[in-house]
What does this fold into?
Amino acid sequence: MEPVKVGLLGLGTVGGGTLNVLVRNAAEIARRAGREIVVSHAAARDYDPARLEGIDRVEVSEDAFSVVDQPEVDIIVELIGGYSPARELVLKAIENGKHVVTANKALIALHGNEIFAAAQKKGVTVAFEAAVAGGIPIIKALREGLAANHIEWIAGIINGTGNFILTEMRNKGRDFADVLAEAQALGYAEADPTFDVEGIDAAHKLTILASLAFGIPLQFDNCFTEGIGKIEPQDVAYAEQLGYRIKHLGITRKTDEGIELRVHPTLIPERRLIANVDGVMNAVLVKGDAVGPTLYYGAGAGSLPTASAVVADIIDVTRTLTTDPGNRVPHLAFQPSELSDLPVLPIGDVETAYYLRMTAEDRPGVVAAVAGILGDLGISIEAMQQKEPAEGETEVPLVMLTHRVRERQMDDAIARIEALPSIRGHVTRIRVEHLS
It folds into this structure.
């Protein structure tokens, strides 16, 4: 049987890792796939041949479209990243009748609906396991392993940079800016870290997970996103004292009213396994009605972990080359005609508990005034701590945890609290999830 020929777009960190894994593990991969898989063509403008195994047997071009147009190539692997020209390359590959494997979460989150519709029409597969959580097989778990379940919710640490920063802040009491600079020096964060620390990268991934879990179209624009730049060391310390840890979570939950889709800093009870995922590691917690909670943990980025997922997709596609398109696993887990129009909820309609920290005058009646506002709006207090003032200071930190309440009620409460003459500056608000 003829080998399956792969066209590799990009020979950077992930592209190079993918080539190396395919060459290094060629015999084992052929045993699993039933056919030999070889990279016959690649596109790259700048690469280091010394770190690429078998590159001498690959026809390399600077023109990615020429690779997509090669008639002998069966599978196009898009590892360029970004929105364009990745979108145009993938759509051209589909038009040419080629299967596609991609690690591009931004592309899938924003243009996946269009890409999957085109693939469905042409009878080809678009595989994207590496787009979420690197080497963790979370997409396969949702599409296949948990197919018997109604998925109730997903909570994930799906950006290693943000998790590294929060871990360092907790372990060493360091400031956000200080740890961010180290993350950039170590190569965990880009020179422009916006996508990581503002939650955009996690929102891309969560958008994909929500579609797989609940059978809804991809809706990145409806994902609420909040970064970690305002988290202070004192918040990390107070959370620890209360028995919680702060993680930058992506959370999606199905309710009677619609789908929650949100990325933000979150207090999690320290006894939860996911609260103990540290450094650059990723973890995704999935709650199904039949299986209960399941946790998927591993490296969320890096050359070989991500290549592991890319190559697994190439093997899957190879196995289905002779399969009738109607019998393949659907791109978004549900049959295209069965996607739901259940809406994504605005953040104001989401119900969660809260951690609140404010600076208050150290005098009688202040706590009562704050508690009165919360009580008037039907917000119950679970715990409260008033810290001792520093010597010579007339202001003190006031920290509290609330029970669950709708976000819009909390917005109203915070506005009223900040208007009190005894409260200084803004109220810090971090959402709390018990994940039980």
